Amino acid sequence: MTNQSNNKSLLDQFISFLLITIGAAFAAVALEIFLVPNNIIDGGIIGISIMLSYVTKIQLSILTLVLNIPFLILGYKQLGKSFLIKAAYAMVVFSILLEQFKPVEELTNDILLATVFGGVLLGIGVGFVIRYGACLDGTEVVAILISKKMSFSVGQVVMFFNFFIYATASLLFGWDRALYSILTYFITFKIIDMVSEGLEQAKAAMIITNHGEEIANSIYKHLGRTVTMLEGEGLISGKKVVLYAVVTRIEIPELKRIVAADDYSAFVTITDVNEIVGKHIKKKKNESTVD
Protein backbone atom coordinates (compact mmCIF):
# COMPACT_ATOMS: atom_id res chain seq x y z
CA MET A 1 0.00 0.00 0.00
CA THR A 2 2.85 2.38 0.84
CA ASN A 3 4.57 1.73 -2.48
CA GLN A 4 1.31 2.37 -4.33
CA SER A 5 0.82 5.65 -2.45
CA ASN A 6 4.38 6.73 -3.22
CA ASN A 7 3.98 5.82 -6.89
CA LYS A 8 0.71 7.75 -7.09
CA SER A 9 2.31 10.75 -5.38
CA LEU A 10 5.22 10.68 -7.83
CA LEU A 11 2.82 10.38 -10.77
CA ASP A 12 0.76 13.33 -9.48
CA GLN A 13 3.91 15.42 -9.11
CA PHE A 14 5.07 14.48 -12.61
CA ILE A 15 1.68 15.43 -14.10
CA SER A 16 1.63 18.75 -12.22
CA PHE A 17 5.11 19.70 -13.46
CA LEU A 18 4.20 18.60 -16.99
CA LEU A 19 1.09 20.79 -17.00
CA ILE A 20 3.03 23.70 -15.49
CA THR A 21 5.46 23.30 -18.42
CA ILE A 22 2.59 23.31 -20.92
CA GLY A 23 1.13 26.39 -19.22
CA ALA A 24 4.47 28.21 -19.40
CA ALA A 25 4.70 27.32 -23.10
CA PHE A 26 1.25 28.78 -23.81
CA ALA A 27 2.18 31.97 -21.95
CA ALA A 28 5.48 32.30 -23.83
CA VAL A 29 3.76 31.83 -27.20
CA ALA A 30 1.15 34.44 -26.28
CA LEU A 31 3.81 37.01 -25.43
CA GLU A 32 6.40 36.44 -28.15
CA ILE A 33 4.12 35.63 -31.09
CA PHE A 34 1.09 37.83 -30.39
CA LEU A 35 1.53 40.53 -27.74
CA VAL A 36 5.11 41.82 -27.58
CA PRO A 37 5.56 42.28 -31.38
CA ASN A 38 2.43 44.47 -31.36
CA ASN A 39 3.52 46.48 -28.28
CA ILE A 40 0.75 45.01 -26.13
CA ILE A 41 1.81 44.29 -22.56
CA ASP A 42 0.67 42.05 -19.75
CA GLY A 43 0.25 43.32 -16.21
CA GLY A 44 2.47 42.72 -13.20
CA ILE A 45 6.17 41.89 -13.30
CA ILE A 46 5.86 40.58 -16.85
CA GLY A 47 4.44 43.92 -17.99
CA ILE A 48 7.24 45.80 -16.23
CA SER A 49 9.78 43.46 -17.87
CA ILE A 50 8.31 44.11 -21.33
CA MET A 51 8.61 47.88 -20.87
CA LEU A 52 12.15 47.65 -19.45
CA SER A 53 13.16 45.38 -22.31
CA TYR A 54 11.77 47.93 -24.77
CA VAL A 55 13.73 50.78 -23.16
CA THR A 56 17.00 49.02 -22.23
CA LYS A 57 17.10 46.33 -24.97
CA ILE A 58 17.84 43.71 -22.30
CA GLN A 59 16.33 40.35 -23.19
CA LEU A 60 12.78 39.86 -21.88
CA SER A 61 13.62 36.33 -20.74
CA ILE A 62 16.39 37.63 -18.44
CA LEU A 63 14.30 40.47 -16.99
CA THR A 64 11.29 38.31 -16.14
CA LEU A 65 13.50 35.86 -14.27
CA VAL A 66 15.66 38.41 -12.43
CA LEU A 67 12.79 40.67 -11.37
CA ASN A 68 10.83 37.72 -9.99
CA ILE A 69 13.64 36.43 -7.74
CA PRO A 70 12.80 38.72 -4.75
CA PHE A 71 9.17 37.63 -4.94
CA LEU A 72 10.20 33.97 -5.02
CA ILE A 73 12.11 34.48 -1.77
CA LEU A 74 9.14 36.28 -0.26
CA GLY A 75 6.81 33.52 -1.44
CA TYR A 76 9.01 30.86 0.13
CA LYS A 77 8.86 32.56 3.54
CA GLN A 78 5.09 32.92 3.40
CA LEU A 79 3.81 30.05 1.23
CA GLY A 80 6.33 27.27 1.78
CA LYS A 81 8.87 25.05 0.04
CA SER A 82 6.47 23.38 -2.38
CA PHE A 83 5.40 26.75 -3.77
CA LEU A 84 9.02 27.87 -4.12
CA ILE A 85 10.04 24.77 -6.08
CA LYS A 86 7.10 24.88 -8.46
CA ALA A 87 7.16 28.65 -8.94
CA ALA A 88 10.93 28.65 -9.55
CA TYR A 89 10.54 25.82 -12.05
CA ALA A 90 7.70 27.62 -13.83
CA MET A 91 9.61 30.90 -14.07
CA VAL A 92 12.81 29.26 -15.34
CA VAL A 93 10.94 27.25 -17.97
CA PHE A 94 8.96 30.35 -18.95
CA SER A 95 12.17 32.36 -19.33
CA ILE A 96 13.78 29.66 -21.49
CA LEU A 97 10.71 29.35 -23.70
CA LEU A 98 10.51 33.12 -24.17
CA GLU A 99 13.99 32.97 -25.65
CA GLN A 100 13.09 29.97 -27.82
CA PHE A 101 10.00 31.61 -29.30
CA LYS A 102 11.58 35.03 -29.76
CA PRO A 103 12.87 34.32 -33.32
CA VAL A 104 9.43 33.11 -34.43
CA GLU A 105 7.64 35.66 -36.58
CA GLU A 106 4.40 37.10 -35.20
CA LEU A 107 1.28 35.41 -36.55
CA THR A 108 -0.68 38.61 -37.11
CA ASN A 109 -0.22 42.35 -37.30
CA ASP A 110 -3.91 42.93 -36.69
CA ILE A 111 -3.98 44.58 -33.28
CA LEU A 112 -7.42 43.23 -32.32
CA LEU A 113 -6.59 39.65 -33.30
CA ALA A 114 -3.31 39.87 -31.39
CA THR A 115 -5.15 41.21 -28.33
CA VAL A 116 -7.83 38.53 -28.30
CA PHE A 117 -5.75 35.47 -29.17
CA GLY A 118 -2.80 36.64 -27.10
CA GLY A 119 -5.09 37.21 -24.12
CA VAL A 120 -6.74 33.79 -24.50
CA LEU A 121 -3.45 31.90 -24.82
CA LEU A 122 -1.93 33.83 -21.92
CA GLY A 123 -4.97 33.11 -19.77
CA ILE A 124 -4.82 29.38 -20.56
CA GLY A 125 -1.11 29.26 -19.80
CA VAL A 126 -1.22 31.20 -16.54
CA GLY A 127 -4.38 29.32 -15.51
CA PHE A 128 -2.60 25.95 -15.82
CA VAL A 129 0.40 27.23 -13.89
CA ILE A 130 -1.78 28.56 -11.04
CA ARG A 131 -4.00 25.49 -10.97
CA TYR A 132 -1.03 23.21 -10.37
CA GLY A 133 0.54 25.21 -7.58
CA ALA A 134 2.93 27.73 -9.15
CA CYS A 135 2.93 31.23 -10.59
CA LEU A 136 4.71 33.18 -13.34
CA ASP A 137 4.41 36.63 -11.82
CA GLY A 138 5.61 37.80 -8.41
CA THR A 139 2.83 40.39 -8.23
CA GLU A 140 0.46 37.59 -7.26
CA VAL A 141 2.60 36.77 -4.21
CA VAL A 142 2.56 40.39 -3.04
CA ALA A 143 -1.20 40.57 -3.64
CA ILE A 144 -1.78 37.46 -1.51
CA LEU A 145 0.26 38.87 1.36
CA ILE A 146 -1.38 42.32 1.22
CA SER A 147 -4.86 40.79 1.07
CA LYS A 148 -4.12 38.87 4.29
CA LYS A 149 -3.25 42.05 6.17
CA MET A 150 -5.76 44.48 4.62
CA SER A 151 -9.38 44.41 3.51
CA PHE A 152 -8.53 44.14 -0.19
CA SER A 153 -8.97 41.07 -2.36
CA VAL A 154 -6.08 39.64 -4.38
CA GLY A 155 -7.75 40.83 -7.58
CA GLN A 156 -8.10 44.38 -6.27
CA VAL A 157 -4.43 44.55 -5.29
CA VAL A 158 -3.30 43.24 -8.69
CA MET A 159 -5.57 45.74 -10.44
CA PHE A 160 -4.08 48.56 -8.35
CA PHE A 161 -0.55 47.61 -9.45
CA ASN A 162 -1.64 47.22 -13.06
CA PHE A 163 -3.24 50.68 -13.11
CA PHE A 164 0.23 52.25 -12.79
CA ILE A 165 1.78 49.77 -15.20
CA TYR A 166 -0.75 50.52 -17.96
CA ALA A 167 -0.46 54.26 -17.31
CA THR A 168 3.29 53.95 -17.89
CA ALA A 169 2.66 51.85 -21.02
CA SER A 170 0.58 54.70 -22.46
CA LEU A 171 3.66 56.95 -22.28
CA LEU A 172 5.87 54.39 -24.04
CA PHE A 173 3.54 52.91 -26.64
CA GLY A 174 0.63 55.35 -26.82
CA TRP A 175 -2.87 55.29 -25.35
CA ASP A 176 -4.24 52.94 -28.01
CA ARG A 177 -1.71 50.22 -27.09
CA ALA A 178 -2.35 50.80 -23.38
CA LEU A 179 -6.09 50.37 -23.93
CA TYR A 180 -5.54 47.19 -25.95
CA SER A 181 -3.29 45.97 -23.12
CA ILE A 182 -6.11 46.56 -20.62
CA LEU A 183 -8.47 44.59 -22.90
CA THR A 184 -5.90 41.79 -23.00
CA TYR A 185 -5.74 41.85 -19.21
CA PHE A 186 -9.51 41.40 -18.84
CA ILE A 187 -9.58 38.56 -21.38
CA THR A 188 -6.66 36.89 -19.64
CA PHE A 189 -8.25 37.36 -16.21
CA LYS A 190 -11.49 35.61 -17.26
CA ILE A 191 -9.66 32.73 -18.96
CA ILE A 192 -7.43 32.27 -15.91
CA ASP A 193 -10.56 32.01 -13.77
CA MET A 194 -12.05 29.34 -16.03
CA VAL A 195 -8.85 27.29 -16.28
CA SER A 196 -7.62 27.57 -12.68
CA GLU A 197 -11.06 27.00 -11.15
CA GLY A 198 -12.26 24.74 -13.95
CA LEU A 199 -15.72 24.08 -15.23
CA GLU A 200 -16.33 22.43 -11.85
CA GLN A 201 -16.47 25.83 -10.13
CA ALA A 202 -19.25 25.67 -7.59
CA LYS A 203 -22.52 27.58 -7.76
CA ALA A 204 -25.15 27.87 -5.04
CA ALA A 205 -28.78 27.66 -6.12
CA MET A 206 -31.69 28.79 -3.93
CA ILE A 207 -35.10 27.70 -5.18
CA ILE A 208 -38.37 28.99 -3.71
CA THR A 209 -41.20 26.70 -4.70
CA ASN A 210 -44.45 24.96 -3.80
CA HIS A 211 -43.09 21.61 -5.04
CA GLY A 212 -40.00 21.15 -2.91
CA GLU A 213 -40.05 17.36 -2.64
CA GLU A 214 -40.49 16.81 -6.38
CA ILE A 215 -37.73 19.24 -7.37
CA ALA A 216 -35.34 17.88 -4.70
CA ASN A 217 -35.85 14.33 -5.95
CA SER A 218 -35.36 15.39 -9.56
CA ILE A 219 -32.11 17.23 -8.72
CA TYR A 220 -30.81 14.16 -6.93
CA LYS A 221 -31.90 11.81 -9.72
CA HIS A 222 -30.46 13.81 -12.61
CA LEU A 223 -27.50 15.62 -11.02
CA GLY A 224 -26.63 13.45 -8.02
CA ARG A 225 -26.73 16.46 -5.69
CA THR A 226 -28.40 16.45 -2.30
CA VAL A 227 -30.66 19.35 -1.41
CA THR A 228 -31.32 21.12 1.90
CA MET A 229 -35.02 21.94 2.45
CA LEU A 230 -36.04 24.98 4.51
CA GLU A 231 -39.40 26.45 5.38
CA GLY A 232 -40.21 29.94 4.14
CA GLU A 233 -43.14 32.31 3.96
CA GLY A 234 -43.80 34.93 1.31
CA LEU A 235 -45.39 38.24 2.22
CA ILE A 236 -48.17 37.64 -0.32
CA SER A 237 -47.76 34.05 -1.50
CA GLY A 238 -47.76 32.45 1.97
CA LYS A 239 -46.00 29.22 2.89
CA LYS A 240 -43.15 28.17 0.61
CA VAL A 241 -40.38 25.58 0.52
CA VAL A 242 -36.85 26.92 0.07
CA LEU A 243 -34.33 24.51 -1.48
CA TYR A 244 -30.58 25.07 -1.23
CA ALA A 245 -28.21 23.10 -3.46
CA VAL A 246 -24.59 23.44 -4.55
CA VAL A 247 -23.90 22.44 -8.15
CA THR A 248 -21.17 23.04 -10.72
CA ARG A 249 -21.15 25.64 -13.46
CA ILE A 250 -21.88 23.10 -16.20
CA GLU A 251 -24.87 21.71 -14.27
CA ILE A 252 -26.71 25.05 -14.18
CA PRO A 253 -28.64 24.55 -17.49
CA GLU A 254 -29.87 21.13 -16.38
CA LEU A 255 -30.88 22.54 -12.98
CA LYS A 256 -32.95 25.23 -14.68
CA ARG A 257 -34.62 22.61 -16.86
CA ILE A 258 -35.49 20.48 -13.81
CA VAL A 259 -37.00 23.41 -11.93
CA ALA A 260 -39.01 24.58 -14.94
CA ALA A 261 -40.34 21.06 -15.52
CA ASP A 262 -41.52 20.59 -11.91
CA ASP A 263 -42.66 24.13 -11.10
CA TYR A 264 -42.70 26.78 -13.82
CA SER A 265 -43.56 29.45 -11.20
CA ALA A 266 -40.55 28.69 -8.95
CA PHE A 267 -38.19 31.56 -8.07
CA VAL A 268 -34.49 30.73 -8.49
CA THR A 269 -31.32 32.62 -7.57
CA ILE A 270 -27.82 31.38 -8.48
CA THR A 271 -24.64 32.74 -6.90
CA ASP A 272 -20.91 31.94 -6.93
CA VAL A 273 -19.41 29.83 -4.17
CA ASN A 274 -15.88 30.81 -3.17
CA GLU A 275 -15.13 27.84 -0.92
CA ILE A 276 -16.71 24.58 0.24
CA VAL A 277 -15.80 23.10 3.61
CA GLY A 278 -16.88 19.50 4.16
CA LYS A 279 -17.99 16.73 1.83
CA HIS A 280 -19.81 17.57 -1.36
CA ILE A 281 -20.37 14.17 -2.95
CA LYS A 282 -23.23 12.14 -4.30
CA LYS A 283 -24.92 10.08 -1.62
CA LYS A 284 -25.63 6.39 -1.91
CA LYS A 285 -29.00 5.42 -3.30
CA ASN A 286 -30.21 4.02 0.00
CA GLU A 287 -29.57 7.33 1.79
CA SER A 288 -31.97 10.21 2.11
CA THR A 289 -32.35 12.49 -0.89
CA VAL A 290 -32.65 15.66 1.14
CA ASP A 291 -30.74 16.96 4.14
Kindly summarize this structure in a few lines.
With 291 residues, this protein is α+β, with helices and mostly antiparallel strands. 64% of the residues lie in helices and 11% in strands. Helix 1 (2-35) packs antiparallel against helix 5 and helix 9 runs antiparallel to helix 10.
Largest sheet: 4 strands, antiparallel
| Uncertain residue ranges | 281-291
**pLDDT average, as an integer?**
84
As a percent range, the share of helical residues equals 55-70%
Sheet/helix structural class: alpha+beta
Order of strands across the biggest sheet? 2-3-1-4
Tally of helical segments:
10
Strand content: 5-15%
Shape: elongated
Q: What gap, in angstroms, lies between the N and C termini?
A: 35 Å
Computed Rg: 24 Å
Total beta strand runs: 4
State the order of secondary-structure elements, H for helix, E for strand: HHHHHHHHEHEEHE
